[in-house]
Amino acid sequence: MSRKNDYIKTRAIAKNIVFDAPTDFGDLEITINLSKPEKDPKAIAAARNQKTNTYPLSQLAIENEGYLGRLGYPARSNHRVIRMTLGGEPWGFQYSPYAYFSEHAIFLLAAHRPMAITQRTFTNLLEIVHTFPHYFVGSNADLPIVGGSMLAQDHYQGGRHQFPMMKAPVAREITLPGFDDVDAGIVKWPMSTIRLTGDTPDSLINAANLIAESWKQYSDETVDVRAFTDGKRHHTVTPIAYRKGDQFVLDIVLRDNQTSDQYPDGIFHPHQDVQHIKKENIGLIEVMGRAILPARLKTEMQEVKKYVLDQPNEMKDYHKAWADDLKATNDFTADNADQIIDQAIGKVFARVLQDAGVFKQTADGEAAFDRFIAQL
């Protein structure tokens, strides 16, 4: 119904550019989203604390259902929300108008409460995949820089899609004392991810909560990991739930939103040299290996292509260092230029995810990850 009445913008979605890019972490999914404006991470953080008396309170408020719109705010007259109870509270289930993947769904709290990752989050996520075993569901982190763009309203995202991270294997198994019925391991993934698998939801919930609460307090100065600076909390997680046959899976991704003089946008955020491709917050969907890149890249990559082929061009200056490196390491022809540039974008996205990983894929990083696991 949502597709037929043009609530889900199938024609706009069809124009998005989508391709896979091989990397050391498997094939990543690259999308250039032509219908989504690029957001500034600082504006996202500021919006979290912005007081508003307007109606509806946000684009994720349940009151959007049937709203006729106004100047500067979209109409939602063809929008419908299915009511459901989750964790004893009234929630809503809806689809996303600009679906990033198949059956992109949003689960939103009926009450207006800011996002918070707590034990209730893990309980709710597993309850959702119990009800919808063919869907994944996850929550963005609840802090700016490492969180999503809608921190003021508690909500989750889900849908019928298997992301690259869900296909990634466990690199090494770990033991969580007291959780004999939970299989745990560190995932072979650029972001620091602990995978919990089992058929007892309560055990998975408690194991996930142990990890999340411990991470909120955990620091390791040797790898720039600090839970607090000047009393300000920096640590949270991005949790994702899905089913594997009869078993439940919870992937817990460790996040840190510190900034520094060297990395004013975020120590564990895309660094300056890759922001010509991606500068926005790395939210839930990208954590899982599907890049949501800005529409500007469609035309900008055509100018990069002209540049590497030594044709007249209007390439943006911020692409020059990257394009020069591509020219120096590839023999470009009119036939292969698009493919080389696409694969190079994939490598940049892999680097973006590595920047966002708190424990790097180095000897020091893996040793630091082991220290965190040991103290659990």
What count of domains describes the coordinates? 1
Give the N-to-C terminal Cα separation: 47 Å
Biggest β-sheet description: 10 strands, antiparallel
Question: Approximately what portion of the residues adopt beta-strand conformation?
Answer: 15-25%
Give the ordered list of helices and strands.
HEEHEEEHEEHEEEHEEEEHEHHHH
Coarse structural class:
alpha+beta
User: How many runs of DSSP E, i.e. beta strands?
Assistant: 15
Q: What is the name of the CATH class?
A: Alpha Beta
Which whole number gives the mean pLDDT? 94
Notes on the structure:
There is one protein chain. A hairpin with a 5-residue loop joins strand 9 and strand 10 (193-198). The termini are far apart. The chain is of the alpha+beta class and 376 residues long. The longest helix is centred in the last third of the chain and has 20 residues, at 337-356. The protein has a 10-stranded antiparallel beta sheet with strand order 3-4-5-7-6-13-14-10-9-8, with helices on one face. The protein has a 3-stranded mixed beta sheet with strand order 1-2-15. It has a two-stranded antiparallel sheet with strand order 11-12. The mean pLDDT is 94. The chain is globular, with a radius of gyration of 21 Å. It has a single domain (10-293, 354-375), classed as 2-Layer Sandwich (HIT family, subunit A). The chain contains 10 helices and 15 strands. Helices cover 28% and strands 22% of the residues. The relative contact order is 0.15. The protein has helices at 10-14, 41-48, 119-131, 164-167, 201-217, 284-287, 296-308, 320-329, 337-356, 363-375; strands at 17-23, 26-32, 82-86, 89-95, 105-109, 136-138, 155-159, 170-174, 183-187, 193-198, 228-229, 232-233, 235-244, 247-256, 290-293.
